[in-house]
Amino acid sequence: MRTRRSHAHRPASKRLSRRDFLKTSAAVSAVTLAAGCASTPKRQTGPVILKPGAKLDKLRVGVIGCGGRGTGAAINCVESSPNVEIVAMGDLFQDRLDSSRQRLSELGAPFKVTDDTCFVGFDAYKGVLDCDIDLVVTAPPPHFRPLHLAAIVAAGKHVFMEKPVAVDPVGVRSIIASSELAKKKGLAIVAGTQRRHQPSYLEVMKRVHDGAIGDVVAAQCYWNQGELWVHERQPDYSDMEWQCRNWLYFDWLSGDHIVEQHIHNLDVVNWAMGSPPAKCVGMGGRQVRTEPKYGNIYDHFAIEYEYPNGARVLSMCRQVKGASHRVSERLVGTLGDSNPDGVIEGENPYRYEPEGEAINPYVQEHADLINSIRNGEPLNEGRRVAESTLTAIMGRMSAYTGREISWNWVMNSSELDLTPPHYEFGEVPITPVAMPGVTKLI
């Protein structure tokens, strides 16, 4: 199996950290755009942009990040549309790529991956982008998504990118820059915020924006659930390998569960409000998941967001075994209220009733992406998902530090960058668990 070299095999003087990459990628991309060229793939030299009504006979897809979500997204992509092939794969770990490859092979004819189009290591994404592909499905741990999106856009590929798209404000600003460049290059970006492609949410939100519940003056959103998987450390693991395999539990990789998971609910609130919040203040802690295997993240958060119109929003998320579950959103207006997953109550009541077979939003988001490419009107959800990601990040930062945070500051001035010194399998000290009033706001 062909393997790209990882950063661990490079001389120290030639290693490129994410921090270095993000500082230079925007400038490099701008030069590339001005010169009228992109990284040259084997079959095409730019994005696939077709006239309305035209059809791309075969849409060739590369997968970056072959864990459960990346594998599932690749399957959803093939299920969504005709003439879609999976032709290349890349992951940090050989065993994870192998298990994903085995599962994807069950797709049959649409699975065209060979040994020569499989790549392993920190720079596996480069091997995928060098292949003959039109579209990338990217779902590595969230930390890597700004790095990968910048490279994908520079290579002239369309992209389905899982949420969240970053873990810190520096990463969010990189995503926004890459998204703006993608617009100029005619590239599609669709994010894994599947509620935006779900008929029940679409129908309710259309009515909310048309005034069915009046002015939205308050909201609540929740993702309270039990425990998730844990990858136990093995004797032969380096710090880096264990943290990347157990990535949910390290803030630099996942952003904490408020960012990795609760972003779905916060995105719905931003959607309803028509903007991100103006400021927030919150709290959280680590009361139950205190063992070392749970890294340095919290197990519960409660954040109050204030939006530009003065509306206050209660955001709550928890991952604790044996506690009550609640995953939902509620909008409160001057004429009624709404569960945006299909219900409006008040002066203009409405209940979504599906017609025919239910639509799977995890499949529909790929169908919408591919239709936009084939119709020559590429969707670009990059800035929107970046803003929802930063909404979650600022909530985490407030809880970690105990400080009230404004959107203007976190978007434009925060220098928080959780990047480790190098991408290599070696020592990576774990940042201490955040302590409000002690942890500095950066």
Strand content of the residues, in percent?
Answer: 15-25%
Number of strands: 15
Shape: globular
Low-confidence stretches: 1-55
Counted up, domains total: 2
Helix content, binned percent? 25-40%
| Secondary-structure element pattern, one letter each | HEHEHEHEHEHEHEHHHHEEEEEEEHHEH
Radius of gyration: 21 Å
Give structural notes.
The protein has 442 residues and is α/β, with parallel strands linked by helices. The protein folds into two domains: 204 residues, Rossmann fold, CATH 3.40.50; 171 residues, Dihydrodipicolinate Reductase, domain 2 (2-Layer Sandwich). Helices cover 34% and strands 18% of the residues. The chain contains 14 helices and 15 strands. The chain has a nine-stranded mixed beta sheet with strand order 14-13-12-11-7-10-9-8-15. A six-stranded parallel beta sheet has the order 3-2-1-4-5-6, with helices on both faces. Helix 2 packs across helix 12 and helix 5 packs parallel to helix 6. The protein is globular and about 60 Å long. 48% of the residues are buried.
